[in-house]
Design a protein that fits this description.
Layout (H helix, E strand, L loop, with lengths): L3 E8 L9 H16 L8 E5 L11 H8 L7 E4 L5 H14 L5 E8 L6 H9 L14 H16 L3 H15 L13 H6 L2 E3 L2 E2 L9 E9 H6 L5 E9 L15 H14 L8 E3 L5 H10 L8 H6 L16 H5 L3 H17 L12 E8 L4 E9 L1
Parallel strand pairs: 2-3, 2-4, 9-10
Antiparallel strand pairs: 1-7, 4-7, 5-6, 8-11, 10-11
Helix pairs in contact: 1-2, 3-13, 6-10
Bound molecules: coenzyme A.
Coenzyme A (COA) binds next to helix 4 and helix 5.
């Protein structure tokens, strides 16, 4: 294994967008190439994350992207791991470089979903669950995460108000992010009075359906030093899974794959949860952020909601989480999400996050979960 660095990052705005998915992917990739200051012809290959391309009647996105970038001869492989597609593409790019097969790899994630209505989109998303026993029986993702929330409430006394605090915080962060889908400050009252989507989760506990793309370029130390971009090291990479179907798991108040991926990343980096200065975690619903902060060891089991209520995960707290606004308010263009987390983490480490900047951030973590945890990817980036 050799060292690998994040050479450049790029992202489109997230939201309801008019461009096609392939155009969004190219836009994010070009921004990352420009940010890296590299000639596109030096890219050895790409992993392209996308989960629901069938909505646009377009599979096989890799060659489309490489053709747009003017490097049609370079290989590009699609990665699908539901909502963890982006984090998984980043992992594969990292493995290629760290393993010595490639010197420069591009990871791009994109999604275009808002051209269909909420019911149709919810149906498509349910194909990412265990459709035979979950989606096909009417269990949507809001329903599955509602089950996790209810179990957490029963076991640990977590309240709807505590979950609402996660939404208030993430919307406040998104209000400072020009690329966010929902850059709107909200109050606790707004959340508590919003409609139930799947009890106890309400409108403001949920992420929106978003379009968008994000990208990162991973390179060897030699290339990074040559381009004077050896400033963000990939210090740890974890990738694990959990039993695919939620009803088949004994305890649903945590996500075993996320715990495992986190442990792998911490072990490789030689770091502990207390060393993380800023984290982007997978808050598809507010309860998911609470569970993530426990699975990663930021807080003891059952205390994540209390920590959110106490402001510990706010920008000025001792454990800032989702400074970008998270999936909740920055948005959740499924294939792009994990790479968007890498964009925020990299910019935080470079001191480029403007009003969202965590002072002197040296170590950042990204946590990306597919479905209810069947696919999990955790990465630790470190200022070099
Ligand atoms: C929450 C949800 C049901 C709302 O859908 P909807 O009721 O059809 O909402 P619409 O798209 O019609 O939007 C209505 C308004 O609410 C806003 N809105 C939509 N979703 C929102 C969300 N999650 N949070 C805050 N505001 C939201 C819209 O911006 C719009 O505001 P406007 O009237 O000011 O323009 C839908 O966003 C949802 O299902 N989200 C979860 C997606 C999901 O499961 N992802 C996979 C996770 S594993």
């Amino acid at each position: 294994m050799r060292k690998a660095y994040v050479l450049g990052v790029g992202a489109t705005k997230y939201g309801k967008l008019s461009l096609q998915g392939r155009e969004l992917a190219a836009q994010a990739a070009l921004e990352a190439i420009h940010d890296a200051g590299i000639d596109a012809r030096r890219i050895d290959g790409a992993f392209v994350a996308n989960a629901f391309g069938m909505i646009e009647k377009q599979g096989h996105p890799g060659p489309l992207l490489m053709t747009s970038l003017g490097i049609p001869d370079k290989p590009a492989t699609a990665i699908e791991a539901a909502c963890a597609s982006g984090g998984s593409a980043f992992r594969e790019a990292y493995v290629n470089v760290a393993g010595g097969m490639s010197d420069v790899m591009l990871a791009v994630g994109f999604e275009r979903i808002t051209q269909v209505d909420t019911v149709t989109a919810t149906g498509y998303f349910s194909y990412g669950s265990d459709y035979f026993c979950e989606g096909g029986n009417g269990a949507s993702f809001p329903g599955l995460y509602a089950a996790i929330a209810r179990a957490h409430m029963q076991r640990f006394g977590t309240t709807e108000e505590q979950l609402a605090q996660v939404a208030v915080k993430n919307h406040a962060n998104a209000a400072l992010n020009p690329k966010a889908h929902l850059p709107k400050r909200i109050t606790l009252d707004d959340v508590m009075k919003s409609m139930y989507v799947a009890h106890p989760l309400k409108l403001y506990d949920a992420c929106p359906f978003s379009d968008g793309a994000s990208a990162a370029i991973v390179a060897s130390e030699e290339v990074a030093r040559e381009l004077r971009k050896a400033d963000v090291l990939v210090a740890g990479s974890g990738r694990a899974g959990s039993i695919a179907s939620l009803p088949d798991r004994g305890d649903i108040t945590s996500i075993p794959g996320a715990q495992l991926a986190g442990q792998q990343a911490f072990r490789q980096a030689g770091l502990a949860p207390k060393d993380i200065d800023v984290a982007e975690v997978h808050d598809c619903f507010t309860i998911a952020e609470v569970v993530a902060t426990e699975d990663l060891g930021f807080f003891p089991r059952g205390e994540g909601a209390k920590a959110a209520e106490q402001g510990r995960t706010a920008r000025d707290g001792d454990r800032p989480v989702n400074t970008s606004g998270g999936l909740k308010a920055k948005g959740h263009p499924v294939g792009a999400t994990g790479l968007g987390q890498v964009v925020e983490a990299t910019q935080q480490l470079r001191g480029q996050s403007g009003p969202r900047q965590i002072p002197d951030a040296e170590v950042a973590l990204t946590h990306n979960v597919g479905a209810t945890g069947g696919s999990c990817a955790v990465h630790i980036l470190r200022r070099a």
